[in-house]
Amino acid sequence: MGVVTDVALGILLVSALLVVVRLVRGPTTLDRAAAADVFVAILLCGVAVLVARRGSTVFVPVLLALSLLGFASSVAVVRFLGREDPVERPDEHSAEGTDAREQQGGTP
Amino acid sequence: MSAWDWVSAVLLLSGSLLALAAGIGMLRFPDLWMRMHAGTKPQVLGLLLVLAGVEIQLVPDASAVVALLFVGLFQLVTAPVASHLLARAGHRSGVVPRDQLVQDDLRVFELECAAGEHPASSPPKDPTPSS
Q1: Which of A26, A43, A56, B12 could form a disulfide with B53 if both were Cys (CB 3.0 to 4.6 A apart)?
Q2: For residues B92 and B128, what is the distance between their CA atoms, to the nearest angstrom?
Q3: What is the ipTM of this complex?
């Protein structure tokens, strides 16, 4: 089992690094919020694999707290951003975005 | 390794591979909704698979198994709410290109609300009306 949990932790580490790249690069704040949400989920998986690896249940309350904290944080960020009007726009979609808004009646 | 150990190993590795797929998808997909589509995998199915694998390892310890079941339950309840809020914020802020959508029901609903067809429901929060 040690080898399996090591491999699982390695895969989770690589995927967490990929998500962190998106967290740093993400063109808008909403992309960063989505990436942070996925990062919390991967962190939950990692702590769960750590519980299986050590065979001790010390980190199970950490899992419970983290699952609720990730939800609260992502909802707080998204609600906060929803109030602001000028959300920064990604470069790659800016032209298409303005076209769509003009066609559909100008809602920001 | 017993048979349950093999089952647990398969569950742990498949959950981790779903997390890897989410990482690749978050990095390579072009807009917010596609990234959310990729990111949902470890949020729901991947986490449930990993938790099932861990529960098989901890199975004599009933309190830990129940706590892990609650973790999975919380994630099942909260992940759709957060994704819904995030997708709607992406829709309203214009981050996602909406001209590629086949059907845009939220836009239709906003237009109907603006036309006063749904007086009971709350109108869309539109800071800068087009009129």
Answers
A1: B12
A2: 12
A3: 0.83
CA distance B2 to A91: 54
Summarised one tens digit per residue, pLDDT across range B10-68 is 999 999 999 999 999 999 998 888 899 998 988 999 999 999 999 998 888 888 899 99
- CA nearest to B43, candidates A77, A36, A81: A36
A56 to chain B, any CB pair closer than 8 A? The answer is no
Question: Hey, what are B21's tokens?
Answer: 């797929």
CB A100 within 8 A of CB B99: yes
Q: Select the residue of B21, B36, B99 nearest A96 (Cβ to Cβ).
A: B99
Residues A58-91: pLDDT tens digits? 899 999 999 989 889 888 888 888 665 444 444 4
Domain ranges of chain B: 3-93
